[in-house]
C-alpha cells in the first residue's frame, strides 16, 4: 500500500487539533458597563451566557476526546470483542458500556443474549453431561516405577496421575493438571514437563513487568504445585542420624527448636552426587496422626516435610526410601496430589496475603496480626506459621476491597516496625505443629467444603527469593488463587518468569544451570532438540551455517547445546561425576559492549592477554570491526559454557550464569575471560565471579 504523503498527514493533524481547539473554546461577552456605570440587567445576562458557554464547552470537550469504557481498561483486561459485547467488560463498567452502545451517535448495537439460544445451550450441556455419566470411569491411575515399597504402606506406592471426574477427565490421564489449570490455560502458554501441565509464561509481554513486580513494587505469584511435597516420619534422633548426610547442610538441631523453615540440597549420601534443591520444615504431628503411622515407637515420632523439584522427585524418593526401608521406625508419606503450594514473590507479598487472610480464627491470630504491616524483606528469616482462616469467593469486585486498608498500612508501616523484635515470636524451643499437614493425614472421606469450613494454611518466608510460600489443601487451591489474582497489583508468572527472577538475583536456576545433575543433563537434551528443530524450520538462506561462518570459522562442539563432551578426557567415568568434581558455577558480566546469549563459549586468558584487552578497550577504544581486533582463541582455551544469559535489568547490562572448569580459576573468586556467542566468531571481554 502506498504511504500517505507528508502533506496529507499534516492536514489530518491540523484538522484534529482544530477540532479539539473548537471544542475547548469558551465564548464570552463584553463587560456590562455604560458610561462608567454597571447595567445590572445586562450584567446578569452576560454572566448567565458565560456560565452556559462554560458548561457547553466542558460537555463538548469531554465528548470530543472521550474514551469508551473498553478503551479505559488496562492492557491485561482488554478483550477483542469488548467494543460490542458488554460481557467482555468487567462488571463495574458494564452499565457505562451499555449506555455508550445505546447512544444514537454510536453505530454499534449491544449484543443481548437470546433466551432461546440459552435454552438450547442448556439442553446440549445436559445431554453432554449425561453421556459422560454413562461412560466407563477410569479407576486405576497407574503407578510410578519406584525401587522400594512395603505392604504395610510404610513406604507407599506412588500414583502416576490424579483421577478426576468431569468432562476434562480424559485429558488428565497422561499428565497432571495443576489446581489452577483452567485459569492459567486461558492466559498463559502451557508446556508439558515432568508429568505436569505447567504455565511457561503469560501471553502478554511480561519481561519488564516481572522485574517490577518482583523487585520494585507489588508482587508476582507462581503456582508451584508441580513441586512434590512428601514427609518422612520417625523419632527425631533417628531421622537426624539416618538422613543427615542426605542434605548438603545436614539437619541442624537449631531448626528443631524454632518455627522456621530452611533451604538445602538433596544429595546421594554414597556418591555425593547432587540431586536437587529442597525446602525443609520440621513438623510435630497430632496424636491422632501418630497413631495411624505403621511404624514401631510411633508415639515419639516427628515429621520432616520436604518439597523438591519435579524433575528429580523419583531420584530423591528412591534414594531416601532405600534408607528408610531398612529401619521399621521410619515411614514415608506422599502428599503430591493432596497439598498445593504457591510462591508469592515481591516487596508487597506479605501485605497482600494479610489482606486475603484477614480473619484468622486460631491461636496464631496474634502472631499473624503482628507482622501484617511488614514488607517481605523485613520478615524474620524462614519464619513459618500455620493457621485456619475462611476462604470465601465473593461476587463483588475483590480488587476494590481493602484498598483503604493497604494505604493505611503503608503510611503507618515505618512507625510500627521500629523497636520490635519479631524473631522472638518464632524461637519457642519446640518442634512446631501445622494443621494443614495434620489435615492431609486424617484422610477424610468428605471433601473439604471451602465455602463453609475453615481452611488450614501454612505460611513461610523465603529470604533468598524475597517472597513467601503458602501451602493449602488441593481442594482449596483454586479458591485461594482466584482471591489472590483479584488483588490489585498482583501478577502471575510461569517457568520463564521464575527463571528470570533467579537470573536477576544471581541465583542458579534448577535444572537449567545445574549440568552436574541428571535433571540438568535431561533438560539440556530437550533444549538441544528444540533449538535444532527451530534451526531446521528456517530457510537455508536465513539460518546460520555453523560449519563455516565469520572468517572461515566453524563452531566448537554441538551448536545447539552446551556440549560438555568437549571436556571428555577419554575415561569411562560418568559425565555427572566428572562435572561435579571439576566445575564451578559463576556469574559472567560483559565488560565491553555486546550481547550475551545462552550456549555462549567461554575462553580462559592469562594476565598478559587481560592487560592487552584492557588497553585496546579503554585506551584505543577499538571496535569489533577494526583490523586490530584480536581473533578468537584456539579450542584448547575453552573452559566453560554460559547456561543462562540475557539483559539483566537489575545491573543494567547483559550478564549470564555459566559453568567453568575449576582448574582455570586458580582458587580465585573473580577474574576475566573471553566470551563468544554461538554462530559468531567475535570474542568479547567479560568478568566472572564465583556464585556462593
TrEMBL record:
GO MF annotation terms: tRNA binding
Coiled coil: none
Domain of life according to the entry: Eukaryota
Source species of the chain: Schizosaccharomyces octosporus (strain yFS286)
Domain POPLD intervals: 467-564
Biased composition (Basic and acidic residues): 9-22
Chief location category: nucleus
Residue span(s) of domain Pop1 N-terminal: 43-234
Location(s) in or outside the cell: Nucleus
Record-level GO cellular component terms: nucleolar ribonuclease P complex; ribonuclease MRP complex
Protein name per Swiss-Prot or TrEMBL: RNase P and RNase MRP subunit
Amino acid at each position: 500500500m502506498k504511504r500517505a504523503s507528508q502533506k496529507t498527514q499534516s492536514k489530518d493533524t491540523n484538522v484534529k487539533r482544530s477540532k479539539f481547539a473548537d471544542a475547548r473554546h469558551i465564548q464570552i461577552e463584553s463587560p456590562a458597563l455604560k458610561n462608567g456605570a454597571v447595567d445590572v440587567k445586562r450584567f446578569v445576562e452576560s454572566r448567565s451566557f458565560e456560565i452556559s458557554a462554560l458548561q457547553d464547552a466542558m460537555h463538548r470537550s469531554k465528548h470530543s476526546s472521550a474514551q469508551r469504557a473498553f478503551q479505559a481498561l488496562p492492557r491485561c483486561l482488554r478483550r477483542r470483542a469488548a467494543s460490542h459485547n458488554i460481557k467482555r467488560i468487567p462488571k463495574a463498567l458494564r452499565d457505562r458500556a451499555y449506555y455508550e452502545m445505546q447512544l444514537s451517535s454510536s453505530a454499534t448495537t449491544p449484543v443481548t443474549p437470546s433466551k432461546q439460544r440459552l435454552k438450547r445451550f442448556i439442553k446440549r450441556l445436559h445431554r453432554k453431561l449425561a453421556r459422560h455419566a454413562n461412560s466407563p470411569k477410569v479407576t486405576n491411575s497407574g503407578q510410578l516405577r519406584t525401587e522400594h515399597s512395603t505392604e504395610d504402606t510404610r513406604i507407599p506406592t506412588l500414583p502416576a496421575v490424579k483421577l478426576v471426574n468431569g468432562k476434562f477427565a480424559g485429558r488428565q490421564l497422561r499428565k497432571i493438571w495443576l489446581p489452577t489449570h483452567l485459569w492459567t490455560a486461558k492466559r498463559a502458554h502451557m508446556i508439558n514437563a515432568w508429568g505436569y501441565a505447567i504455565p511457561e509464561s503469560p501471553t502478554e509481554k511480561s519481561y519488564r513487568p516481572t522485574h517490577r513486580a518482583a523487585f520494585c513494587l507489588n508482587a508476582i505469584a507462581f503456582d508451584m504445585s508441580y513441586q512434590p511435597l512428601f514427609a518422612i516420619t520417625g523419632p527425631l534422633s533417628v531421622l537426624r542420624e539416618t538422613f543427615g548426610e542426605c542434605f548438603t547442610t545436614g539437619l541442624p538441631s537449631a531448626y528443631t527448636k524454632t518455627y522456621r523453615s530452611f533451604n538445602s540440597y538433596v544429595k546421594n549420601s554414597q556418591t555425593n552426587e547432587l540431586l536437587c534443591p529442597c525446602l525443609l520444615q520440621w513438623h510435630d504431628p497430632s496424636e491422632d496422626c501418630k497413631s495411624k503411622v505403621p511404624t514401631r515407637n510411633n508415639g515419639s515420632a516427628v515429621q520432616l516435610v520436604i518439597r523438591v523439584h519435579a524433575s528429580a522427585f523419583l531420584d530423591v524418593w528412591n534414594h531416601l526410601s532405600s534408607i528408610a526401608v531398612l529401619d521399621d521406625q521410619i515411614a514415608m508419606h506422599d502428599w503430591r496430589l493432596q497439598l498445593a503450594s504457591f510462591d508469592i514473590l515481591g516487596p508487597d507479598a506479605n501485605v497482600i496475603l494479610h489482606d486475603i487472610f484477614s480473619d484468622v480464627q486460631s491461636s496464631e491470630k496474634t502472631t499473624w496480626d503482628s507482622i501484617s504491616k511488614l514488607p517481605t524483606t523485613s520478615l524474620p528469616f524462614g519464619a513459618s506459621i500455620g493457621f485456619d482462616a475462611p476462604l470465601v469467593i465473593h461476587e463483588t469486585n475483590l480488587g476494590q476491597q481493602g484498598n483503604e486498608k493497604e494505604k493505611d498500612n503503608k503510611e503507618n508501616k515505618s512507625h510500627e516496625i521500629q523497636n520490635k523484635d519479631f524473631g522472638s515470636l518464632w524461637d519457642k524451643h519446640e518442634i512446631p505443629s501445622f494443621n494443614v499437614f495434620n489435615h492431609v493425614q486424617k484422610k477424610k472421606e468428605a471433601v473439604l467444603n471451602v465455602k463453609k469450613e475453615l481452611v488450614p494454611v501454612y505460611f513461610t518466608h523465603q529470604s533468598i527469593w524475597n517472597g513467601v510460600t503458602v501451602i493449602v489443601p488441593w481442594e482449596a487451591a483454586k479458591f485461594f488463587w482466584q482471591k489472590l489474582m483479584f488483588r490489585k497489583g498482583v501478577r502471575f508468572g510461569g517457568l520463564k518468569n521464575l527463571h528470570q527472577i533467579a537470573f536477576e538475583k544471581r541465583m542458579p536456576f534448577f535444572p537449567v544451570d545445574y549440568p552436574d545433575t541428571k535433571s540438568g543433563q535431561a533438560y539440556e537434551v530437550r533444549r538441544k532438540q528444540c533449538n535444532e528443530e527451530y534451526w531446521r524450520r528456517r530457510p537455508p538462506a536465513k539460518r546460520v551455517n555453523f560449519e563455516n561462518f565469520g572468517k572461515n570459522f566453524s563452531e566448537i562442539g554441538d551448536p545447539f547445546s552446551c556440549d560438555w563432551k568437549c571436556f571428555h578426557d577419554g575415561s569411562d567415568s560418568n559425565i555427572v561425576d566428572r562435572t561435579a568434581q571439576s566445575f564451578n558455577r559463576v556469574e559472567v558480566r560483559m565488560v565491553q559492549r555486546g550481547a550475551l546469549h545462552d550456549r555462549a563459549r567461554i575462553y580462559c586468558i592469562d594476565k598478559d592477554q587481560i592487560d592487552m584487552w584492557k588497553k585496546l578497550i579503554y585506551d584505543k577504544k577499538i571496535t569489533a570491526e577494526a583490523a586490530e581486533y584480536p581473533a578468537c582463541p584456539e579450542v584448547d582455551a575453552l573452559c566453560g559454557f554460559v547456561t543462562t544469559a540475557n539483559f539483566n535489568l537489575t545491573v543494567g547490562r547483559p550478564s549470564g550464569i555459566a559453568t567453568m572448569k575449576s582448574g582455570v580459576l586458580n582458587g580465585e573468586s573473580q577474574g576475566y575471560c573471553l566470551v563468544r556467542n554461538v554462530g559468531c566468531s567475535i570474542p568479547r571481554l567479560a568478568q566472572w565471579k564465583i556464585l556462593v
